[in-house]
Design goal:
Blueprint: E1 8-13, H1 22-36, E2 40-45, H2 46-49, H3 68-78, E3 82-87, H4 96-103, E4 113-119, H5 126-137, E5 142-143, E6 148-150, E7 157-158, E8 161-162, H6 166-191
Parallel strand pairs: 1-2, 1-3, 3-4, 4-5, 4-6
Antiparallel strand pairs: 7-8
Helix pairs in contact: 1-6
Length: 194
């Protein structure tokens, strides 16, 4: 856990598919977080993390990991105080790479706030974000109401860059402010052994 002066924000790219648009959206979120100024930022690309399908012999809540990739993943997530999940929806649900990354761990996620920047077609990925909220509740994570929704995402990605609407810029500003507040508020719970 970080000190009060340093709040580490994990911006997680949930899609690992070729041609994904999550990466330029995550780059935009990182830019907005830098402008906010209240975070140290860790851009977490699940494609680069490349976790195997969950195969640890022990339950994740025990933290008795055997695979070096899981051990490294545990240390990385443990050091993060708050999360923005940049996510599409797959079949109205959580992308498989994100579900696998979440399920690899347990204690490391506890008492941390999370927000969503969801994208897709007409629904803007909202159904996937809602499904993921249920998963995060199992870790005692606090999912905040504020987030960014990007419907018809193809209209917002030009030459490999995400071009937000004015409303999305405002939504990101509010989301980051609330994430920092919740991270500060939950700091005591994160510091107290269960």
């Amino acid at each position: 856990m970080n000190t009060k002066s340093s709040t580490k924000l994990g911006v997680v790219i949930a899609s690992v598919r070729e041609g994904r648009v999550g990466a330029p959206i995550a780059d935009w979120v990182v830019e907005r977080a830098r402008e906010h100024g209240g975070f140290e930022i860790d851009l977490v690309d699940l494609k680069e993390v490349d976790l195997p399908f969950l195969q640890e012999p022990g339950h994740p809540r025990l933290r008795q990991y055997t695979d070096e990739r899981t051990i490294a993943w545990s240390a990385r997530i443990d050091a993060i105080d708050a999360f923005v999940f940049v996510t599409p929806e797959y079949n109205w649900s959580t992308p498989p790479a994100l579900a696998n990354a979440l399920d690899h761990l347990h204690q490391e996620w506890k008492y941390k706030p999370a927000a969503f920047v969801s994208y897709g077609g007409v629904s803007g990925g909202l159904r996937g974000a809602q499904a993921t909220r249920l998963r995060l509740a199992a870790f005692n994570m606090m999912t905040i109401a504020e987030g960014v929704v990007i419907p018809f995402v193809a209209h917002h990605v030009k030459d490999g860059r995400f071009v937000p609407s004015e409303l999305q810029v405002k939504a990101a500003t509010v989301m980051l402010r609330e994430l920092r507040r919740w991270s500060d508020a939950l700091r005591t719970l994160r510091a107290t052994p269960a």
